[in-house]
Design brief:
heterodimer, A: 166 residues, mainly beta, 3-stranded antiparallel β-sheet, 45% strand, elongated, B: 4-stranded antiparallel β-sheet
Chain lengths: 166, 159
C-alpha cells in the first residue's frame, strides 16, 4: 500500500513537470440505423372447414383456406421468426390433433414464388424481409377421430418476429 | 480534484492486477482504432444502450506504450448522431468506458469517458479501451443511417 501511494505521488510530480507531453489522436465513428418497427398482422385463419369423423383433412399452404400473416418492417432486414404451433384444436375440453404444418414465405401477398420455411414450433428461424414485407402462408392437417365430438374446434397459431440486427 | 481521485483509483487497480516494475526510456505511443461504436438497428422511441464490454458493438482502440508509461485518455464525444440535419441524441454514462489489458471482462477497469482519465501501464505495454453509450431515438425519429465521429486523444505524460 505504501508503494502504491508512492507511485501515485510520483505520477503527480510528473504531471506537473512535463512540459511538452506527446499526444496522439485517433478517431472512430458512432453509428446507428433507425428503422421502422415491425408490424405483424393476421390476415386470414387456417380454416379446415367441415371435417368428418375419422377422416384426416389437409389444407395446403397455397390453398385459399390457408392461414396468412403479414410482417411489415424495414427494407431487407433479417428477422427471427418464432412460431408457436398448437398440437391440438380444442372444443371445450375436447381436442382434435393438428399437425404437418407447412409454412412458406414471400415478399408479396401471393403464393406464387413463395419459398418453404423449415421450422420447429418455438424455435426461431431467420428470414429476410423483401422490400419491407414478408407474407407467410400456413397449411396443416387435422385428424379427427372416428368418435370425434361434433362442434367447432379452434386454437391459436402464434408468431413473434424480431430484428436480428442483420 | 475528481480527476486526481480517478487517477488514484485506477493506479491502485492496475497495480493490484499487474505487479509494478520499473522501466527505463520512453517509446512513442501507438494508438490503433479497432472498431466503431455501433448501435445497430434502432426503433423510434426505443433507447438502446451498448455496454463497453459488448465486444461486437462497443467502440474500441488499442493503446501501446512503454511499460510504466503514464498517459491521459480524453474522448471528444458527440452529443448526437447525425443523418443530414437530423440529430439522434447520444448519452455517455459515467461507466461507459472500459480498459483491459486482455481484451476480456476479466481485468476490465471502468472509467468515465466524459472526463480525461489517467492510466499507468504497470506490467503491460498495451491495452484496449472500450466505449459504450446510449442512443435515444425520438418517437418520430426519421429512418436512415446516422453517424458521428468520436475523437480519442492520448497524451503521454512520461514514465
Amino acid at each position: 500500500m505504501h508503494n502504491l501511494f508512492r507511485a501515485f505521488a510520483s505520477a503527480l510530480a510528473l504531471t506537473v513537470t512535463v512540459n511538452a507531453a506527446q499526444a496522439q489522436s485517433a478517431s472512430m465513428n458512432a453509428t446507428a440505423s433507425v428503422i421502422t418497427p415491425l408490424v405483424v398482422t393476421g390476415l386470414a385463419p387456417l380454416n379446415f372447414g367441415v371435417v368428418i369423423q375419422g377422416v384426416a383433412k389437409t389444407i395446403a399452404w397455397n390453398n385459399a383456406a390457408s392461414g396468412r400473416l403479414s410482417i411489415a418492417g424495414f427494407g431487407t432486414s433479417q428477422l427471427a421468426l418464432t412460431f408457436t404451433l398448437p398440437a391440438t384444436l380444442s372444443n371445450g375440453a375436447t381436442t382434435m390433433p393438428i399437425n404437418r404444418y407447412r409454412i412458406r414465405g414471400n415478399g408479396t401477398n401471393t403464393t406464387a414464388g413463395a419459398t418453404r420455411i423449415f421450422l420447429t414450433s418455438g424455435v426461431p428461424v431467420n428470414r429476410n424481409l423483401v422490400g419491407g414485407n414478408l407474407f407467410l402462408f400456413v397449411g396443416g392437417r387435422v385428424q379427427p377421430t372416428v368418435t370425434q365430438q361434433p362442434g367447432v374446434y379452434t386454437a391459436s397459431v402464434m408468431l413473434s418476429a424480431a430484428y436480428t440486427g442483420l | 480534484m475528481s480527476r486526481f481521485c480517478v487517477f488514484a483509483r485506477l493506479t491502485v487497480l492496475f497495480s493490484a492486477m499487474f505487479v509494478a516494475r520499473s522501466a527505463a526510456g520512453q517509446a512513442p505511443l501507438v494508438v490503433r482504432p479497432i472498431q466503431n461504436l455501433s448501435f445497430g438497428f434502432l426503433i423510434p422511441g426505443v433507447p438502446t444502450t451498448i455496454d463497453a464490454l459488448q465486444l461486437s458493438r462497443s467502440g474500441q482502440i488499442e493503446v501501446q506504450a512503454t511499460l510504466g508509461a503514464i498517459f491521459e485518455i480524453r474522448y471528444t464525444l458527440p452529443t448526437a448522431l447525425l443523418n443530414g440535419g437530423t440529430a439522434l441524441p447520444l448519452v455517455f454514462g459515467s461507466n461507459a468506458g472500459g480498459a483491459s489489458a486482455s481484451r476480456t471482462p476479466v481485468d476490465v477497469i471502468r472509467f468515465n469517458p466524459n472526463v480525461p482519465t489517467r492510466f499507468r501501464y504497470a506490467t503491460t505495454d498495451r491495452a484496449t479501451f472500450f466505449l459504450g453509450g446510449e442512443a435515444r431515438p425520438g418517437v418520430g425519429q426519421r429512418t436512415g443511417a446516422y453517424a458521428a465521429p468520436i475523437i480519442v486523444t492520448i497524451t503521454n505524460l512520461g514514465i
